[in-house]
Structure formats: C-alpha cells, structure tokens
Amino acid sequence: MSIPQHIAVVMDGNGRWARQRYLPRVAGHRQGVESLRRCVRACEASGVKVLTVFAFSSENWNRPEEEVSGLMDLLITALSGEVKPSHESGVKICFVGDRSRVSERVRAGFTKAEKLTEGNQKITLNVCFNYGGRWDIAQAARKVAAQGKEITEEALEAEMATAHVGDPDLLIRTGGEYRISNFLLWQCAYSELVFSDKLWPDFDEAALDTALEEYAQRER
Ligand code: IPE
Ligand code: IPE
Ligand code: MG
Q1: 15 CB near ligand 1 (under 6 Å)
Q2: Ligand 2 mean position, distance from CA 52 (Å)
Q3: Does residue 40 contact residue 48 with C-beta atoms inside 8 Å?
Q4: 6-10 and 50-57 as β-strands: parallel, antiparallel, unpaired?
C-alpha cells in the first residue's frame, strides 16, 4: 500500500463532540488533544514522516472569548505536559503560524519545544496555530519583497511557513464538512483530499486506516 509521507489534518468537530455529551466546548478541545496524541502515534506506526495539523485558525479569534481563553489555557497545559513525552518518543515539534498575536508565554513555550525536539527524526509534527493560508502567502510575499527579489513561485515556495517539510500528499478533514477553511492553500495544490464524518475526538486508528486506504486506492 502506498503511504503518504506527509499528511495534513483539519481537526474539526470538537465542539459537536462535546455538545453530544452535554459538555462545554472546551471539553471537546481537551479530548481533541488526546486524539492528536493518538494520531501522531498511529501515523508514525504507519510510516508517515510528517503530520501537519490545524489547531487554531486566524479566524478562530472570532469565537466567544470564553472558548478562545479555554483554548489558550489548553495550549499552555499541552506545552507543559505533552512536549516532554513527545520528545521521548522521538517527535520533532514545530509551530507554524503568526506568532505576533500569541502571548509572550506561549511564544516562549513554542521556542522551547522546538529547541528541545529539533534533533528528533521519527516523525515531524507541525502544529498550525494562529495560521491562515492567506496569511502564509502574504507573509512569504513580504519576505521575498524585503529581500528585493522578484516574486516567483520558487521564491514564494522557499518562504512559505511550511518550507521545512514540503507539500502534503494527503489532506484529511474530519467532522463532516467539505471545506479547506483557509488551511494550507498554497501547499494543497496537488494533495489528495479525504473527508471523514468522524468528529475529531472520535478519529481513531481505524479512521486513519480508512483514510490511508482511500489514499492508496487513488494512487493506484
Ligand atoms: C475544531 O473543532 C477545533 C478548533 C477550531 C479549535 P470545532 O471547535 O470547530 O468543533 P465544531 O466544528 O464546532 O464541532
Ligand atoms: C478549521 O475549523 C480550523 C481548525 C480546525 C483549527 P473551523 O471549525 O474553525 O472552520 P469552519 O468555521 O467550519 O470553516
Ligand atoms: Mg468546526
């Protein structure tokens, strides 16, 4: 079976997962972190080398303040509790997105996690936080312009926020919606798209296998 080297995931459906259980939305996000940990392990076991996940979009700031602050708290908890075990299992963690709007504390946590895990080679986990596909193209163009270079595809490519990993072979969106929602607009030009009805907290090893099988069938 042909295995994608790089998978990107729009982890959608945490809120609905919580609602189904009469829980606050943030409980769904908390379960989403568990699901991500499981997904990283399953991807690594399947031979996937890069996993790029959409954790918080540029547009997610528009959510109710309570939910945004719950997500920031969860991020801080994850930075202090998840990074070390990930490092021990050989995961290289990178944060992708506009860091100017996140707190100093979160920024420091990002840098610390990246430094700690930079030599790991089992799998690379890119966590897209305060990320937007349009932001990415614009920031790449600004960098190319600042270097006084002509704006070419190659020059932009080299400055995209995911230039360290290249383009995803497969993009999965969970949660039953059929949208890109401003994720990797430039990078998904040729990615296979697979949509899963599973809500992200329910996206388990079997659901990943189903997506991988669909990918392998299309590659044939
Ligand atoms: C995705 O789940 C996680 C984030 C956007 C942070 P949602 O919160 O969008 O869950 P639904 O789509 O409302 O179920
Ligand atoms: C996309 O999901 C963003 C993340 C998964 C972080 P959303 O739930 O925010 O996207 P829309 O609102 O359905 O387009
Ligand atoms: Mg959603």
Answers
A1: yes
A2: 15
A3: no
A4: parallel
Token pair of 208, please?
Answer: 């990943």
Provide the token pair at 176.
């039953």
d(CA 66, CA 220): 47
Cα of 63 vs centre of ligand 3, distance in Å, is 11
Return d(Cα 195, Cα 179) in angstroms, integer. 9
User: Is 60 part of the annotated catalytic residue set?
Assistant: yes
Residue bearing tokens 């401003």: 182
Kindly state the tokens that stand for 27.
């409980």
DSSP for residue 167: -
* Nearest CA owner, ligand 2 atom 8: 12
Neighbouring C-beta atoms of residue 214, cutoff 10 Å: 17
Q: Which of 16, 129, 180, 183 to mutate to test the pocket of ligand 1 (most atoms within 8 A of CB)?
A: 16
Full-prediction pTM beyond 0.85? yes
DSSP 210: H
Mean pLDDT score, 117-140: 98
Residues 6 or more apart in contact with residue 130 via CB below 8 angstroms: 56, 57, 58, 61, 97, 98, 99, 101, 102
- d(CA 76, CA 70) in angstroms, rounded, equals 10
List, for residues 9-49, the tens digit of each pLDDT value: 999 999 999 999 999 999 999 999 999 999 999 999 999 99
60 vs 196: CA distance, rounded Å: 21
Q: Which of 12, 136, 167, 169 is catalytic?
A: 12
129 close to ligand 2 (CB < 6 Angstrom): no
